[in-house]
Amino acid sequence: MLQHGLLRPSFIPPSGPRTLRDLTRSRSTLIEERSRVIARLQKTLEDANIKLASVASDVMGTSAQHMLRALVKGELAPSAMADFARGRMRAKHEQLAQALTGHLQPHHRFLEAPHLAHIESLEEAIDRLSAEIAQRLAPYEAILLRLETIPGIQRRLAEIILAEIGPDMSRFPSAQHLARLRRHVSGQP
User: Fold this and answer.
1) At CA 182, angle to CA 162 and CA 4, rounded to 5?
2) Collapsing DSSP states into helix, strand and coil, what is residue 49?
3) Local mean pLDDT, 10-residue blocks, the chain (189 residues)
4) CB-based contact 178:165 (threshold 8 Å)
5) What are phi and psi of 114, to 5 degrees?
6) Rounded CA gap, 54 and 37, in Å?
7) Cα–Cα distance for residue pair 107/89, rounded to 1 Å
8) Which DSSP helix (H) or strand (E) runs through 125?
């Protein structure tokens, strides 16, 4: 059908950008999975009446992770765990101690331990993928910096854009052609 002009040719990136696209899509999937595991961890904490998220803006920040590990071990009192606070969280010591006072049962600890381990594993995989992506995109640093000048585009999104469309814009006769590709990639009409 293609030979007779019945099908429009589709955009197929060369193998370099395809590999990069696989890497960025895999990283995005891992980031989404990490978010789901964090949500499950928070749900278990809420079930135990531990309200860490109400005080800590990032429940996976360094201070909060130390507190969560201490919670899972069950060795420290809430006020002692609040001592792990660093930076701006130090001013919230009393609130932290109150937020960490709950009814954490053994089954909650049992559920939390694998969540924390899974999050740590996902973060390591995300870091490895990010390093590989950065290495492969090093020759295109100028393009990445230019993309980052667009309001709302930060490094990670610039990497995804470059991976999805490639560094060579000459295959797109106009901005409209590129916009049509975006609709096809995202599944929009």
Assistant:
1) 110
2) coil
3) 62 70 96 96 93 87 89 84 84 87 90 95 98 96 93 92 82 74 49
4) yes
5) -70, -30
6) 18
7) 28
8) helix 106-137
